[in-house]
């Protein structure tokens, strides 16, 4: 007699079939970070007005370095989003969100991609390139029997 494993509901089977473990981990971790980040923003906004905080940050040398570092990273994320989306037109509102919301927008974009992805590659690579790569693999001499 075979030992029965833990019973799984139909929704658990469906989730595993649609979203593999690495993608689930990425989506879950991104959601948790997003929730913590929002809580920190709410807490900070209760302590001080954002305008006053930014003025203090810019007045400090290391604060300015931190802002330049943040926006340099966000620029790289904007380039990646444009690459994945395939055009500046399709990525425009994501870039606007990055400028005003910072990494909240990055997390939202990764969560959106992860919830639609079947593989971890689909989260970070444009689907058109993955399809093209698969087509090249299937037509290569090594792929034919």
Fraction of residues in H or I helices: over 70%
> Mean of residue pLDDT?
86
The shape, in one word, is elongated
Q: Termini, distance in Å?
A: 39 Å
Tally of individual domains: 1
Q: Gyration radius, to the nearest Å?
A: 21 Å
Work out the helix count: 8
What order do the helices and strands follow?
HHHHHHHH
- Main sheet record: none
> Hey, roughly how much beta strand do the residues contain?
under 5%
Number of strands: 0
Low-confidence stretches: 1-16
Structural class of the helices, strands and pairings? Answer: mainly alpha
Describe, in plain words, how this protein is organized in 3D.
The protein is mostly helical and 145 residues long. The chain has one domain. 81% of the residues lie in helices and 0% in strands. The protein is built from eight helices and no strands. It has helices at 10-18, 21-47, 50-59, 61-85, 88-101, 103-116, 120-124, 127-139. Helix 2 packs antiparallel against helix 6 and helix 3 (50-59) crosses helix 4.
């Amino acid at each position: 007699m075979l030992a029965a494993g833990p019973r799984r509901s139909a929704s658990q089977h469906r989730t595993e079939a649609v979203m593999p473990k690495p993608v689930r981990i990425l989506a879950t971790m991104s959601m948790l970070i997003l929730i913590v980040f929002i809580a920190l923003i709410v807490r900070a906004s209760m302590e001080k007005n954002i305008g006053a905080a930014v003025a203090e940050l810019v007045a400090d040398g290391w604060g300015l370095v931190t802002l330049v570092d943040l926006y340099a990273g966000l620029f790289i994320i904007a380039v990646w989003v444009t690459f994945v989306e395939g055009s500046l037109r399709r990525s425009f509102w994501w870039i606007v969100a990055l400028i005003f919301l910072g990494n909240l927008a990055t997390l939202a974009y990764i969560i959106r991609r992860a919830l639609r992805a079947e593989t971890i590659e689909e989260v970070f690579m444009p689907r058109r390139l993955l399809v093209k790569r698969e087509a090249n693999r299937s037509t290569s001499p090594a792929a034919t029997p």
